[in-house]
Amino acid sequence: MAGNEELGNIVRKKHFDAGRALLICISVLFIGSMLVLPLGTVIYNALRNGWKVLFSAWRAPYTISALKVTLYVALVSLCVNTVFGIAAAWCLTKYDFRGKQILLSMIDIPLSCSPVIVALGYIMMFGRMGWAAPMVDWIIQLPYSINGVILATIFVTFPFVVREIVPVLNAIGREEETAAAQMGAGGAAIFLKITMPNMKWALLSGMSMCTARALGEFGAVFALARSRGETFTLPLEVDALYMTGRKDSVAMAFAAAFLLILLDVTILAVKNIAEYITKKKKVDEAFE
Amino acid sequence: MNDYKESKRLIPGFSLTLGITISMLSVIVIIPLLSIFRYALKIAPVDFLNIILQQNIRRAFWTSIVQSLIAAGINSLFGTIIAWVLVRYTFRFKRFFDCLIDIPLAMPTAVAGITLSKLYSDQGWLGRLLGAFGIHVPYTKAGLTIALIFVGIPFVVRVIQPVLQGLNSQYEEAAQLLGANKITVFRKIIFPEIRAAVFTGFSLAFARGLGEYGSVIYISGNSDKNGTKVISYVIMQKLNAGAIDYEGASAIALVLLVLSFFILLVTNLIQIRNNKRNY
Amino acid sequence: MKNIKRILECIFLTLIFVLSGCTYRNMNEELTIYNVSYDSTRELYEAYNTLFLSYYEEKTGQRLKVLQSHGGSGSQARSVIEGANADVVTLALAHDITLIEEAGLIDKGWYDELEGHSSPYTSTIVFVVHKNNPKQICDWDDLIANDIEIVTPDPKSSGGACWNFLAAWYYAQQLYNNQEQTEGFVRSLYKNVLVMDASARTAATTFVENGQGDVLIAWENDAIVVCEEYPDEYEIIIPSVSILAQPSVAAVDYNVKRNGTEQIANEYLKYLYSDEAQYLFAEYGFRPSSQKILNEYSDRFNQDMKLCTIDDFGGWEAVYQKFFKDGGIFDLIYNE
Fold it and tell me: Would you give the distance in Å from CA A279 to the centre of its chain?
């Protein structure tokens, strides 16, 4: 299929294509005005007071604590979601069972669920007068503690790993695994030797998407985290700094936002490289 | 049925993975959402209707639905174009632009809201430019729509892109050789193939916009009168104002939840139908 | 059947895994006290905490840690009701603390436990305008002119905004002395509202950072901060009539008993009335409750303006029922 794409390009390159130029122009303009300008605003506002202000903002105790919390939360939710994502993708692609489609749609719920509702749900379940509070209260405190933040983050990043792996595994099919199983290989061996190599780049891409989203979640976390320096993540810290209304703290807010965006961009770069490799592999296979 | 069981047993790990999937799904997603159902369904039906049908709540629902429809529509149009450009054409910095599409997914919504309101404010880059033409964006419906476009665009592009990549261009070229012009080719050959993907992207962006909170509250002005107050803001308002109104909040949340479930259901049905047709 | 049993086993194991994964205990055994407060006091309590910690260490030799939490007053009260482990609450209005009391977390009688209805500092509502007051705004009646754009937060989600509304209402009531005209005045005032943000802080940001509107109706302490930050761009206008906003403080009895922080919490609140703390409040733009110290800062706090109190409206409960509940006067005025 990629061969066709290239062929198409060769065919089109013969003459100047007005439609092509127009469409590229529209896309670049749209991306430029809707995505690049906001990004540019953050970077400009973070840098316009000079590097010194930027670095001193990054060294502020609240920013450091927020960064730690953010990374901790992202890490935990990444681990949980990776385990879940692999399990769910395996289960959804390697077997047929009734209700599979329902399960698949249910995994997508967090994508279309308002963050406000997520927070409300957790509060109504685990809050002091929630029905589950007596059951879990003696183990952990959930609302307004770091555990609640983690739970909310897991919720919003829930579908990302699954959504990236499932199509890849579906495309590969299950012949190899079936054959291995027939020859007597154990589950772990099949997974590590056959499935994992096939899906590793998709998994990496899903994991980076999950991390990027976890770093940036605001709405749900906003309703479940309250104390600055303890449970505040970087997005909340940005909001707190911006709302302080002092000149220097506005600058600090943009500095913190810039830090967050740097993290995000790094992770997205990993994702894009992973996707590129997946695609390239497909091309190679197509030509073989 | 027998075939099913046969293949199910062949690869080991069925119960393990299904167990993990079901338990995580219930603990993280299903049970918390059911808690809202549980609370909202305790309200007497009459009271429930009274809450939902209040004028300001009706208006907020209307605002959310209409503005996210508009935003999702704009996103579908431009998203399709962008996906097409990113898949079919090669040009400089293409990978860079491709990478940028994910920014709204990763950028914290609060940062997005703050940034957009700064960008479009009278002192902002775009605000000054538009101000010269007498267009005022922040704290109006336009501002609200822009925020929703921002958060929704990756959903559309990322759904259409793989479909376009998998599209076989033989038919197009055949049609072109036979003398069909580009518009006809698009209408007759390409669009039917990506229609389901466009719709999926549209509904994902729509569902996302319907519940959006962080990016919207800073730029919309939250005015009931100007129709810029969105429904998730009303839920927060119910919880945070004067007396804590759990009933009101959970009733509205329930309606919103049912709405997004419905969207999800339609999307999935379309996807299933489409998959069947393809095989 | 065997399959189902195994699925159940796996579900059980995963649950244990998830729960243990979520368990994060603070290993820090330092004695901490958790203060849940509202938006405007963030910097104030940061300074006060340092002050209090050194005082407490000097007095008892014990090192403490104070955690603070800020947000809209109503949402902060809700977080305590829902299980945030607050030792003390220092909120924008007494009503929010009453909500916690109604949930059974604070003992009755907190309102008169400390001096001045448990409010160690007060504030009031003033206007912030652009430098040199280009629109000539001097008092409330200038706000209803046609070309004025007002920025004020939403009373239905911000405590501070309730004070704004009541101050305007009180002015009109003094002027007309009848309900209909008062309503009409407040209605035309709210017609001029350009942006209604979710909280006082967001409104200030909208006005200052994004340059929206001609006048910001704000807490005096926020206004003082804004004008100190941007002395060449904004100035404060003191209206003839305003309201005495009394932010209240209380210890959350249920939590302090559980945490064993009863004595520290009380000490924390009592120290708010010390001279050192009162000077600090004045520095941060809050009116100290000590008349002596307030007089020392008379150039900062205009004491000539006429201030009504919440008791003129019959207390918070009555105010809430009359004005701010769904379908109350505010809804009638604003939604028209």
Answer: 20
* Residues C210, B117: C-beta atoms closer than 8 Å: yes
Rounded Cα–Cα distance for residues B186 and C12 (Å): 52
Q: Is A28 on the interface with B (CB under 8 A)?
A: yes
Between CA A213 and CA A152 the distance in angstroms is: 12
pLDDT tens digits, C153-191: 888 877 778 889 999 999 999 999 888 999 999 999 998
Query: Looking at the partner chain, which of A8, A130, A234 has a beta carbon nearest the beta carbon of B35?
Result: A130
ipTM associated with this complex = 0.86
* Chain B contact partners (≥3 CB pairs within 8 A): A, C
Dist CA C71 CA C54 (whole Å) = 26
Question: B54 — contact with chain C (CB < 8 Å)?
Answer: yes
Strand C150-151 and strand C241-245: pairing?
A: unpaired
Cα–Cα separations (whole angstroms), residue B99 to A25, A88, C146: 17, 27, 48
Continuous H helices in A108-246: 115-126, 133-136, 146-172, 175-182, 187-190, 196-216, 219-224, 234-244
In contact, C161 and C119? CB cutoff 8 Å: no
> Residue C202 and residue A147: Cβ atoms within 8 Å?
no
Higher pLDDT, A109 or A245: A109
**Encoding tokens for residue C275?**
């001279």
Report the gap between the CA of B123 and the closest CA in chain C (Å). 7
CB B35 within 8 A of CB A124: yes
* Domains C31-119+247-273 and C123-245+305-335 alike in fold: yes
Q: Dihedral through CA A43, CA A45, CA A50, CA A54, nearest 10? A: -70
Partner B contacted by C166 (CB < 8 A): no
CATH of domain C123-245+305-335: 3.40.190.10
What is d(CA B208, CA B260) in angstroms, rounded to the nearest whole number? 9
Q: Where are the domains of chain C?
A: 31-119+247-273, 123-245+305-335
Closest CA to C94 of C82, C81, C110: C110
Chain C residue with CA closest to A241: the answer is: C42
> Under an 8 A CB cutoff, do A187 and B89 touch?
no
The matching CATH number, chosen from 1.10.3720.10, 2.40.10.10, 1.10.10.10, 3.90.79.10, for B44-278 is 1.10.3720.10
- Residue pLDDT, tens place only, A49-79: 888 889 988 998 889 999 999 999 999 999 9
Interchain CB distance below 8 Å, C210 and B233: no
Partners for A (CB, 8 Å, 3+ pairs)?
A: B, C
Domains of chain B by residue range: 1-42, 44-278
- Domains of chain A, first to last: 1-48 (no CATH), 50-287 (1.10.3720.10)
User: Chain A residues with CB inside 8 Å of B272's CB?
Assistant: 101
Query: How far, rounded to the nearest angstrom, does the alpha carbon of residue B197 sit from its chain's CA centroid?
Result: 13
Is the minimum CB–CB distance between C187 and chain B shorter than 8 Å?
no
Contact C212 B123 (CB under 8 A): no
Those residues with Cβ within 8 angstroms of residue C70's Cβ, 6 or more apart along the chain or in another chain: A228, A240, C37, C38, C39, C41, C42, C76
Q: Compute CA C102 distance to the chain's CA centroid, rounded to the nearest angstrom.
A: 19
> Is the CATH number of domain C31-119+247-273 3.40.190.10?
yes
Q: Do B211 and A113 touch (CB under 8 A)?
A: yes
What is the band of C1 on the pLDDT scale with cuts at 50, 70, 90? low
C18 touches chain B (CB under 8 A): yes
Query: Best residue in A24, A114, A264 to probe B by mutation, most B CBs within 10 Å?
Result: A114
CB proximity under 8 Å: A 76-95 to C: 76, 79-80
Reference C127, options C201, C238, C222; nearest CA is C238
> Is B18 within 8 Å of chain C by CB?
yes
CA count, 13 A, side-chain hemisphere, A257: 32
